[in-house]
């Protein structure tokens, strides 16, 4: 399999690159800065994620695209939404059908509050994270309503996603957080990357969203 990773230099994108390389997948990083360090064996193509023509050229010839796009600062969060629309235009232009999107968790629901998105529960999402969560929910809506011939999957992380261990074991949910025995929703970035590449290989969730988290005993 050959994949392009947009956002390959990011915290989550770089782990997806490592996980894919470890499984023998050929990886092309789509970067805005051509001089960034990348693991050996990764091809590089330069494109702004909001530039449809450049993006289409950069992803041509791939079997799938992973978008791990994110704005590092609050004034850059809109890239998640403009990037979503750009990808929905660029993939058909490039003749690539499969897209896996690193999503947000604010649009998921807690088992004890199933009537409302997490982000709409007052205080549930820290103030600093709200703009990122809102942008991600808007991007999810763009995927859900698109008529573009793109086989997208939007993978929402757990409520807490942080650097950690690769265990290779995770639980799966649809629109509700996967929670452990303490009711917490967590996943390491490494295991999230495992789930991304598993989904690329299996395509269990075409044109929909799912989520991953640790379902086992509390630790
Ligand atoms: N980290 C978390 O705790 C967390 C939690 C929930 C959801 N998420 C979601 O996961 C996604 C990725 O998060 P992350 O923490 O890995 O983000 P990150 O470390 O900030 O990485 C973002 C990536 O996007 C790239 N990028 C940004 N603007 C671009 C543009 N205009 N053109 C091309 N590339 C661009 C960055 O490239 P440069 O290296 O050039 O800047 C970088 O590779 C985000 O959308 C975020 O909402 C993250």
Could you characterize what this model shows?
- The protein is α/β, with parallel strands linked by helices and 219 residues long.
- The protein has five helices and ten strands; from the N terminus they run E-H-E-E-H-E-H-E-H-E-E-E-E-H-E.
- The strands form two sheets. An eight-stranded mixed beta sheet has the order 3-2-1-4-5-6-10-8, sandwiched between helices. A two-stranded parallel ribbon has the order 7-9.
- The protein starts with a strand and ends in a 6-residue tail after the last strand.
- The structure holds NADP nicotinamide-adenine-dinucleotide phosphate (NAP).
- NADP nicotinamide-adenine-dinucleotide phosphate binds next to helix 1, helix 3 and helix 4.
Question: How would you summarize this macromolecular structure in one to three sentences?
Answer:
The protein has 219 residues and is α/β, with parallel strands linked by helices. The chain contains five helices and ten strands, in the order βαββαβαβαββββαβ.
